[in-house]
Amino acid sequence: MSPQLRQHFEKITPLSDQEFEYISTHFVAKKFKKHQFLVQEGVPVPNDFFVIKGLVKASFTNDENKEHILQFAMEDWWVCDYQAYFNKTNATLNVDCLEDTEVLCLSLTNREKLCAELHKIEHFFRRKSNSGYIALQQRILSLMNSDAKGRYESFLKQHPTLFQRVPKTLIASYLGVSRETLSRLSS
Amino acid sequence: MSPQLRQHFEKITPLSDQEFEYISTHFVAKKFKKHQFLVQEGVPVPNDFFVIKGLVKASFTNDENKEHILQFAMEDWWVCDYQAYFNKTNATLNVDCLEDTEVLCLSLTNREKLCAELHKIEHFFRRKSNSGYIALQQRILSLMNSDAKGRYESFLKQHPTLFQRVPKTLIASYLGVSRETLSRLSS
DNA sequence: ACTTTTGTGTGACGTATGTCACACCATTAA
DNA sequence: TTAATGGTGTGACATACGTCACACAAAAGT
């Protein structure tokens, strides 16, 4: 199985060959084409996804059919509708591919099994979750504190790669601005 | 030590008397008066706080002296500047008391020690962090999807207690709206 | 090769919300 | 008792941003 996953774990905790081999049996590789859905609103969410290759977005679409992007995920990112995943409810988000993408799927059962069996893994996921929490707090601050231009610029700074790979329409929807406003900012 | 903390842990994982007794030696009780700071911008943040009694706010103040509230915390809530705490940097947030409050302090060292020694505790904090993450995602969606009125109403629904204990000026600053706009909403 | 879809710019206009100003009351401190 | 502080309402006005409309080009699908 992908050495990418191992490297990813080992940024936080070292693993023996056996340990990693054991861990990797709990993941399932899958491929998706552009426009395919990893998670679809209204249906259960058995898996969390670790992106090996490609690019996806996680988004919420409201009653007026306006889409708000919660997250992009490219190589080495995790993505899911975590609310639905952890609470075993139906998804309220969609996760779909902006490019052809390859992922490793981790079912909730396998995740909890690994966490229970290997303290290291529980530690890993705690650390991941902590960082995620902090990042979201930053995002909230940026939504409250900065105007469209400020958010646009700090996105550009923090995610130059995404900025190139993602259409601006979607970046607008990630930043919480209309497509038109974003367009006027860059000109 | 406070049975409140034990109950709080046991919502997620059962503990023996000895276990809890051991755990509790890692916490330090402290009392603060209204207007005192638990965390102050620019200084290190050695502790995370579990609120036993009282009410605090965690906020960011920008260059124009505008305050944005990231979180309120009352009984049974955890509060901190987690970015500074986990990364051992200086605080960018302030945490201060809206009421006289009693907390249990958990240093980063003790937290990591407990997590390493007791798998249960690492599990506890992973679960906590996961829920926190999900809650912040919801908040982001609400900032992007709802207008002032919508956010105000869902805050009222979700936190009727806070609504009573917290001045509306501060609720406004939590919701990302001006004091005046919020005032006009309720009338 | 043709059509459809996707991405992007730009003008005109409406509106939700911010800002500034002032007034009033309740509470706390001196 | 007075003064200072904190919380709230409300009017007048400014503005950032959304919405709708149209145009055009590039990419994708047939």
TrEMBL record, chains A, B:
SUPFAM superfamilies given in the database record: cAMP-binding domain-like
Residue span, Cyclic nucleotide-binding domain: 30-116
Pfam families, A to Z: cNMP_binding (PF00027)
InterPro entries: cNMP-bd_dom, cNMP-bd_dom_sf, RmlC-like_jellyroll
Segments traversing the membrane: none
Name of the protein in question: Crp/Fnr family transcriptional regulator
Taxonomic source organism: Chryseosolibacter indicus
